[in-house]
Amino acid sequence: MRESKNICRLCLEEKELTYEHYPPKSAFNKQTQFYSIDYSDYAKNFRDYHTDGVIKSKIYQGGLGDYVLCEDCNNFLGITYVRDYVKFAKICMSILNQYEDIKGMALTLKRNEVNLKYFLKQVASIFISCNQLYFAEDNPELINFIRDKDTPVLSDRYRFYLYLNNEGQIKNGLHMFTNLYGGICEFTFAPFGIVLNIDNPNRIDTIYEMTNFKNYDNLTSDKFELLLNKYPSYTPVPLDFRSKNEVDKIFL
So where are the chain's domains? Predict the structure, then answer.
C-alpha cells in the first residue's frame, strides 16, 4: 500500500496514484485499523480463524483504502459525490446508535437531504476502487456511469442493494462468483452493507434494491421511503448474514 505510478481505476490512464479512502474518510473512515485476509486462505483454514483467532496479515491503519486513483479522479469523487454519501451515512449511523437493537427500519428521506443518484455513483466507485484493475477494464459501462455525474444510463445487468450493518467484519467488496446469485461484490463498513450484483436477472429479496436511485432526477416525489434491514457480517462469504452465535456453533 504505497504511492506508485500505475493505472488509475477510474480514468484508466497511467498516472501517479493517490490514496483513495473507501468509504470516504469523513464517513467514519479516518482512523480505521484493518486486516486484509486472503479469501482462499480463509476458505482452507476457516476453522482456525474462528477457533484460534489466527490472523495471517499485518494491521493497516489510517483509514481503509488504497493507492488506486489519480489525483484528478480522487478530487472529482470528493467534489461531486462524497458529500451525499457522507450525509446519508451520518443519518443512518445516528439511527443505529440511538436504537441499538433494531432489526431494520423504514426511513423517509426528503429530496433536499440526500441526492440518491450521487450516493449510488459513490457506491459504484467503491467497487471500482476496491477491486483489481481487470474489474474496471471489464466494466466500462460502470466506469462511464461514475465519470458522468448527470447520466442515469446503466444497463440492467448491474443491480445495487443496500442494508444496514454495524456488527461483524468489514467485507472487502471483491468480485466473486456464487452459485445462487452469479457475480457478487459485497462491501460492509458501518453503517452500510452495499452489494453489486452483476448479470443476475433475479432480485435478491433479503436486502433493499437501490438500483433505481440512478433515476433520481426523473422521480417526481419529494420524499423517498426506504425499507432497510440490518444484518451482521461475521464471515467473508457473500450474503452470509448469520449471527455470531450461529457462526460460532459450527466450530464449537
Answer: 5-251
